[in-house]
Design a protein that fits this description.
This protein has two domains: 7-42; 47-75 and 84-105, no CATH class. The protein has one helix and four strands, in the order αββββ. The longest helix is centred in the N-terminal third of the chain and has 34 residues, at 7-40. The protein has one helix spanning 7-40; strands at 52-54, 63-66, 87-90, 99-101. By secondary structure, the protein is of the alpha+beta class. 31% of the residues lie in helices and 13% in strands. A two-stranded antiparallel ribbon has the order 1-4.
Length: 111
């Protein structure tokens, strides 16, 4: 079965696997680098002194779109003339605000 695969195909599969791993790990690497940059600048590691963190459920928009074509997530592209019925629901996790107070820097100091 594998005796008909050329060296170029094997290299293509290897490059594809490397790109897939890089794509999957990119958000974690980005958050690690940004946290280290923020700490070196004396800022909050989590929010960068914004005092707010975006909701992970609605990605900061405060609403969720349900019932789209193939029922994909919120970041889908809808085309003009698309007859799929999208309904917008309020996010229950953040109560439609889209953000939470930062747990690191919005702590009330105790005296």
């Amino acid at each position: 079965m594998l005796e008909h695969i050329t060296a170029s195909e094997v290299a293509g599969y290897g490059v594809g696997a490397l790109l897939l791993c890089a794509t999957i790990s990119a958000p974690k690497i980005d958050s690690f680098i940004s946290a280290s940059q923020r700490s070196s600048l004396g800022m909050c590691k989590k929010c960068g002194d914004l005092k707010l963190i975006a909701c992970s459920n609605c990605k900061g928009s405060g609403s969720l779109k349900q019932g789209g074509a193939f029922n994909f997530g919120q970041d889908d592209i809808s085309f003009a003339g698309d007859n799929s019925k999208m309904t917008s629901l309020s996010c229950k996790k953040c109560r439609s605000r889209g953000h939470f107070p930062c747990p690191e820097c919005s702590k009330v100091p105790t005296t």
